[in-house]
Amino acid sequence: RQPLPPRGGRGVAPPLVAQQRGVAGPTVAQMQAPSRRDGPPGSVEALVARQNVLLEEFTHQQSQTLREVQRAVSNVARGGGVSTGGSTMALPKVAIFLDVPNLIYAAEQMGVRVHFGKLLDYLTEGRQLVRATAYAPITDDPMTRFEAQRFVQPVFNNGWKIVTKPWKRFADGSMKANFDIELAVDILTMSDRLDVVVLLSGDGDFRRVCELVESKGVRVEVVAFAQSTAIELRSVADQYTDLGSILHTVGG
C-alpha cells in the first residue's frame, strides 16, 4: 500500500500546488531580479554624485590628453626634428619675449640681478629657438651710448634682438615707454609658426594675448618674479616659473 500524504499542513506542500489552484508563481526573471531596497535613498544619491565627480575628472583628463596630442601632432607637422636611434623627434620651436623694464624693476626691488644670457640658454635647452626679442626703452639723449643705456646693457650681446622705443615725457615730468602693443602684436604674428611662447613679464595686461595664443594650440609659459606677477597672468599660463626660484642658475 502507498502511504497517504500528510494532512492539516503538518508536512510540506506538494510542488506546483500554487499553479494547480490558479495562482501564478514568480517567474525566473523575477526571482533573479535584484531587490530595489538596497539601501536608503541617500546612499543612492551619494553614489550618483560620486559617479558625476568621477565623470568630470575623466573628462578633464581626456581634454588635457587631447591638448597634448594636438601639440605633438603640430610639432611633427612643422618639422625641425632630429634623428635619435632611427626615429625622428621634433624639437619644439620657441620664441621668447622679454619685457625688460618689468623684470629689471622687480629685480631691483628684490636686490638681485639676472644674467639674461644665462636665462636665454636655460629657456631654450632642448628647443629650437626661432627668436628672442627684448623690448627696451631708451633715452633720446644723443650723448648716451646705446649699449650703455639702463635697459639695453643687460641684454646687449647676449643673444637678444633688441626692440627700442624712446621714453615719452609728460607735462608733470614723468616718463613712460609702454611696449604692450608692440609685444602683443609680435606674439600674435609669430604664434602660427611656433610650438611654445615664453613671456618674460608679470604684467597682467598680457592675459588676453596668452589666451588667444593658447587657443591656437601653442603652449604659453610665463617667467617672472612672483612678487610682481599679476594673478590673472599666472593663472592663464600653461606653465608659470618664479624667476626667483631659478636665480641659482640664471642669476648675474
Can you describe what's shown?
It is elongated and about 80 Å long. With 252 residues, the chain is α/β, with parallel strands linked by helices. The protein has a 6-stranded parallel beta sheet. The protein folds into 2 domains: 43-81; 92-250, Rossmann fold (3-Layer(aba) Sandwich). Strand 6 (168-169) and strand 7 form a beta hairpin. The chain has helices spanning 17-20, 28-32, 41-78, 100-110, 116-124, 180-190, 207-214, 231-236, 247-250, and strands at residues 81-84, 87-90, 93-99, 128-138, 161-166, 168-169, 175-176, 196-200, 219-224, 239-242. The relative contact order is 0.12.
Q: What is this structure, in a nutshell?
A:
The chain is α/β, with parallel strands linked by helices and about 250 residues long.
The helicity comes to 25-40%
Strand residues, percent: 15-25%
CATH superfamily of the largest domain: 5'-nuclease
Helical run tally: 9
Our count of domains comes out at 2
The largest pleated sheet is described as: 6 strands, parallel
* Uncertain residue ranges: 8-39, 75-80
The tally of strands reads 10
- Order of strands across the biggest sheet? 5-4-3-8-9-10
**What is the CATH T-level topology of the largest domain?**
Rossmann fold
N-to-C order of helices and strands = HHHEEEHHEEEEHEHEHEH
CATH architecture of the largest domain: 3-Layer(aba) Sandwich
Q: Give the averaged pLDDT, no decimals.
A: 79
Structural class: alpha/beta
Shape: elongated
Question: Rounded to an integer, what's the Rg over CA atoms?
Answer: 35 Å
What is the CATH C-level name of the largest domain?
Alpha Beta
Distance between the termini: 115 Å
